[in-house]
Amino acid sequence: MINLVPPEIKQRKGVKSLIYVITSIYFVLSAGLVLGLVGLATYNYSQKIYLGSQQAELDRLNVEKNKNKTLFDQAAFIESRVKNAATYQSSYDWNQVLNSIAESSPINTRLTALKITTDPSKPPTITLNGQSADRRAIILFKDKLSITKPFSGADITALTESTAGANKTYTFTISVSIINK
Amino acid sequence: MRHILASRYFLIITALFLAVTMTIIWFFFPPVLKTFKDIRVTTNSLTDQIETSQIDGVRAKDLVVEEATLASLYDKASLALPSSPSADLLLLQLDGLTKSLGLDATITVPFSSTSLANQVAAPAAPTNDNDIKPGSGSTGGSQPIINPSGTGTNTDWSLTGDWDYPTTLNLLTKLKTFSRWNAVTSIDLTSTAEKSTTTISGKVYWTPTANLQLTGSAQDLLDKAKTLFDSYQSYATVPDVTKEGNFGKTNPFLP
Which of A58, B151, B163, B179 is the S-S candidate for B79 at Cβ 3.0 to 4.6 Å? Predict the structure, then answer.
């Protein structure tokens, strides 16, 4: 078959259809944009209504909570105390420290003074003053403290001798630290 | 292409399309998108708040059921770590502690309130301004000494008495379960042939309460608090002027 349509007419028809296609695309795109805009605006509107109901629910819950505000305040107060209990109490078991001193004391020595001092920047120190008729027992006391928990670094800082009649008495001072917890 | 551009219809429709789309994109979309974002943020925030409030609702039910226990634990927590120095109650507690052991003690506590004045032996009347010293009090026997309180959240206290080693141990044991949380900072025990003297010094604490919020489960908290506070021993009740004491004298200078 021979196509007898002139080429100008064929070209004009092609351009026309292309313009229709492009116009359709424009239309679809514009419609898409408008629909998107309308959809978004509608979504916003519905969300605003939903937010209103959520806010009302929150207000209702807050009213409920405020009814029990005293209970919540008390519970929060207790919780803060429970969480920080250890911070506000002795770091050392002083009964254990004193018992350890007693258990480390030789039977032929006698303490005359005991002083425990604490300083937040360093381990607590104990100063023990006492008497004994046996110099060796004092040294053993110091050695025993050195190997007994919770002590460290026991030192004899003073040792003096006094005589009363035939009896000799040695007065001593021992300084010892407590191991940091 | 040349043929398309030559079409007036195409040019008009293209211009119209561009004008419409640019108008929509430029003028209409930004405010709608901004509203959308704002709503998302608000929704998330509200959802979180509602979740928290719903959790609080569950907590509230637990707290209401255990209201009496909560009140009791609150009293014990207030004794252990009050929100103010509460020196007057500390004095009564230390006094009760030493008396429970039958001990005669000199008690030193911080001075924090004028209400303590009636617990201090009356000093000699001041004759001039130099005689007036804050916190001055008596110094001996079983009479409490009241010192000016510090400005921090802890303050020093001390107990002194003629106590031997076993008594000191006993007192230290009691201080571990003393209702007011304390830290012993020094122990001074001196023994002579005639008597033993002991001074135990320490700190007590207080911490201001501001904007505290319950964060955990109410039931867990009550269980933990019971375990913690039930081990502490109180030696005095909180003074209540509306329920105790006899007042009214015609001449307050007479004994």
Answer: B179
